[in-house]
Amino acid sequence: MKNLSAPSSPDTSAQPGGRSQAAIVVFVLLPFTLAHFLSYLYRNVNAVVYPDLARELGLNANALGWLTSAYLLAFALAQLPIGVALDRYGCRRGQAPLMLIAASGSVVFAYAHSLSMLAIGRGLIGFGVAGSLMAAIKASSQWLPRERLSLATATLLAVGGFGAMASTTPMQVALRHLDWRQVFVVLGMCTVAVSALIYFAVPEPRPVAQTARLGDMWRDIGQLFRSSSFWRISLYSIFAHATYMAVQGLWMGAWLRDAGGLDSARAADVLLAGTVTMIAGSLCFGWLTDWLKRFGVNPITVCGGGIAVFLVCQALMIWGHGRSPLLLACGFTFFGTAATMNYAIIAQSVPAHLTGRVSTSFNLLVFLLAFVIQAALGAVIAHWPSQGGAYPVQAYQWAFGINLALQCPGLLLWLTFRPWARERTAVV
Predict the structure, then answer these.
(1) Which Pfam families does the annotation name (predicted)?
(2) If you placed Cys at 136, which of 32, 99, 152, 187 could pair as Cys (CB 3.0 to 4.6 Å)?
(3) 390 - beta bridge partners?
(4) What is the chain's mean pLDDT, rounded?
(5) Can you tell me the distance from the alpha carbon of 192 to that of 269, in angstroms, rounded to the nearest whole number?
(6) 428 within a domain of the structure (yes/no)
C-alpha cells in the first residue's frame, strides 16, 4: 500500500482520450452529480418534514434522531463493498443498481406506518445513495487531470449543496401541495430516472482494475486501515466533518425553531440560506485550495484553517443562539464545508486505481461517526422535557457543547502537520 503522506504521480493508463471537456462534463460528471444531488436531498429532508413526522407518528427527539441516523448507518456500512465494486466494476455499473435500491427505500418510507418500517426505508435510501459522491470522485480521477481534482471535488460538493437547498424552502412549498408520503414517492421516481441516466449515458474508461482479484482488493483495504498515515490524515477532520453532517441533516432545523425562536416557514428559509452559503463555501474552499497550491500552500492548511473557524461558529451557536440565528446557521454551513475538502486530499494521496477504496474507507469512518453523533444529540436533547413539541435552549447547549469539546483534539492533530510550513508539493 502506498504511503499516504507522499504525493503520487498520475495514473495515465486509465485516462480516456478523444473526448472534449464538455462531453466529459455532460456524459460523465453530470449524471453522477445528479445522484449526489439526490443523496443530499434525502440526507437533509427530515429536517423539514420533522414536524409532520413527529405529529403523525408521535416521535420524540430521541426516536427521530435514531430514525434519521439510520440513513447514516446504512450509508457507512455500504462504503467498503462499494469501494471494491467501484474499483473493480467501474462507476457506471457500480452506481446505477444502487440508485434503484434507494428508490425502493423511498417508496417503503412513503408507505410506512411504524417506526421500524420508517427506519428500514431510511436505511435502504442510505445504502442506495452511499456511493454517489465516491463514484463521482472516482470518475473525476479517471477522466480529469489529477491537479484539477480538488476543484472538481469542490464543484461536486457544491452541486450536492443544491440538493440540500431543495430540501429546505422548496420542500416546505411542496408540502403545501403534497403530504410527506407523496413527496417520497416522487423522490423515488426521480431516483429511478437518475439510475437509468447513469447506466445508459455514462461511458466506462478501460477498467484497469478489472483483472485484480477480489481477495487482493480487500487485502488492500486491510493494509489501508493499518496505515498510520491514513489515520493521521483522516482523524484531524473527522469529528468536524461528522458534526457538520449530523447537525445540518437534522438538528439545525430543530435548533432554529427551539433555540432561535423561528416558526417552521422561517426556519426553512434560514435552512435555504444556509445551503446557499454551503454551496458558496464548497466553491470558495475548492478555488482557494487550487489557487494557493501555486504558492506552495498545502491543501491541509486550508482545510484545517476552515475547521478552526467552524468550531468558533459552533461556540457562537451555543452561547449566542438568540442573537442572529440566520448568521450563525450560514456561518456553520459555510465553514463546515472546509472539512469536506479532506476527500480530495485523501483521494490525491493514492494512485487512481485505489481512489474508490481509499475514499469509501474514509467515508465509512465519517458516516459511522455522523450516525453516532446524530443519534447521541437526540438522546441528550431528549433528557429535557419538551413543551408543545419544543425543547429548551439548555438542551441544545449541553448537546452541542459536549460535541464541540470532542472536536477540539482534531485541531491539535492538525498542528502536528505543521500547516504553517510551505511544501514543494501541494499534496499531503
Answers:
(1) MFS_1 (PF07690)
(2) 32
(3) 387
(4) 82
(5) 29
(6) no
Model confidence over 82-99: pLDDT tens digits?
A: 877 877 788 888 899 999
How many structural domains does the chain have? 1
How far apart are the C-alpha atoms of 52 and 45, rounded to whole Å?
A: 12
In a domain, 39, yes or no: yes
Cell readout for 198 is 447513469
User: Is 252 inside a domain boundary?
Assistant: yes
Give the structural domain span for 311: 21-204+213-415
CA-closest candidate to residue 167, choices 330, 33, 41: 41
- Give the residue among 207, 205, 222 at the shortest CA–CA distance from 80: 222
pLDDT value at position 75? Answer: 86
Span 326-361, pLDDT tens digits: 999 999 999 999 998 887 788 777 666 666 677 778
Residue 189 has a pLDDT of 97
Please list, residue by residue across 382-420, b when 16 or more beta carbons sit within 10 angstroms of its beta carbon and e when fewer do: bebeeeeeebebebbebbbeebbeebeebbebbeebebe
Whole-structure pTM value: 0.72
b vs e for 11-30, b when ≥16 Cβ sit within 10 Å of the residue's Cβ? beebbeeeeeeeebeeebbb
Q: Helix (H, G, I), strand (E, B), or coil: what is residue 392?
A: coil
State the CB neighbour count (10 A cutoff) for residue 361: 22
Using one digit for the tens of pLDDT, what is the confidence trace for 125-136? 999 998 888 888
* Three cell numbers written together for 369: 461517526
**Per-residue pLDDT at 8:** 39
What distance in Å separates the CA atoms of residue 331 and residue 328, rounded to the nearest whole number? 5
Q: State the distance between the two ends of the chain, measured CA to CA, in whole angstroms.
A: 16
CATH code at position 178: 1.20.1250.20
Q: 387 forms bridges with which residues in the sheet? A: 390
| CA 209 to chain CA centroid, nearest Å | 26
- The residue ranking higher by pLDDT, 181 or 350, is 181
From the number of C-beta atoms within 10 Å of its C-beta (0-12, 13-18, 19+), residue 214 rates as exposed
